[in-house]
């Protein structure tokens, strides 16, 4: 009985397609589209982190992997349980214009990550699966690189270098002179 019911439903969908009312899609496609509508940001972020690679195709290691996980953690705090398909440009704008206590460099990276994750979700799958979301809702500009503070540090004068040299233990004094000569 359930097979006959399923067959009747498919016949109805095909008939609606022939009449131009709605497009018929195979059951597997409809099921993946249904699952995509229920997919949360957290679930897709897990997929993104697991499959994200370096530009040469190699796996991320060390600091790159830690930075990716830290950026995604901050994004999870903002978008975690929201359905991916329900994230709108206005939600992103509210997050974008909010406080970012991690600092301007982390905020810039988070913007780049969020845009990359949503771009990935709006592209067709590797096996030809339809995109999970129709368009990328990240329409805000990526912030420019923040101004570095190291350029505001004034160079050491000869007297300060001499005092540092004298205060260092004898076995490491040479490092002060080497650093000063090398411009460190």
Offer a quick outline of the entry.
It is built from 8 helices and no strands. The chain has helices spanning 2-18, 27-38, 41-51, 62-79, 89-97, 104-121, 158-167, 173-182. The N and C termini lie far apart (80 Å).
Fold and architecture overview:
- This protein has helices at about 1-20, 25-40, 40-50, 60-80, 90-95, 105-120, 160-165, 175-180.
- The chain has about 180 residues and is mainly α.
- It has two domains: about 40-145, Orthogonal Bundle (DNA polymerase, domain 1); about 155-180, no CATH class.
- The chain is elongated, with a radius of gyration of 27 Å.
Number of domains: 2
How confident is the prediction overall: mean pLDDT?
A: 87
Secondary-structure element series: HHHHHHHH
**Largest sheet data:** none
Protein structure class: mainly alpha
Individual helix count: 8
Taking all Cα atoms into account, the compactness measure Rg is: 27 Å
Strand elements, count:
0
Shape: elongated
* Corresponding CATH architecture of the largest domain: Orthogonal Bundle
Strand content: under 5%
> What is the CATH fold-level name of the largest domain?
DNA polymerase, domain 1
Look at the structure and give the CATH class of the largest domain.
Answer: Mainly Alpha
Low-confidence parts lasting 5 or more residues at pLDDT below 50?
Answer: none
Percent range of helical residues: 55-70%
Give the terminus-to-terminus CA distance. Answer: 80 Å
């Amino acid at each position: 009985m359930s097979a006959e019911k399923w067959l009747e439903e498919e016949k109805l969908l095909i008939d609606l397609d022939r009449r131009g009312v709605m497009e018929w899609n195979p059951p597997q496609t409809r099921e993946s589209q249904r699952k995509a509508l229920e997919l949360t940001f957290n679930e897709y972020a897990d997929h993104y982190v697991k499959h994200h690679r370096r530009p040469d195709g190699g796996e991320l290691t060390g600091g790159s992997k830690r930075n990716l996980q830290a950026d995604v953690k901050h994004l999870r705090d903002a978008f975690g349980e929201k359905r991916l398909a329900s994230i709108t440009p206005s939600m992103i704008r509210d997050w974008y214009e909010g406080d970012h206590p991690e600092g301007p460099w982390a905020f810039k990276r988070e913007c780049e990550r969020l845009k990359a994750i949503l771009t990935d979700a709006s592209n067709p799958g590797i096996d030809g699966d339809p995109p999970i979301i129709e368009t990328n809702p990240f329409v805000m500009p990526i912030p420019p690189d923040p101004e570095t503070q190291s350029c505001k540090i004034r160079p050491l004068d000869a007297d300060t270098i001499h005092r540092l040299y004298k205060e260092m233990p004898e076995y490491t004094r040479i490092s002060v002179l080497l650093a000063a000569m090398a411009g460190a």
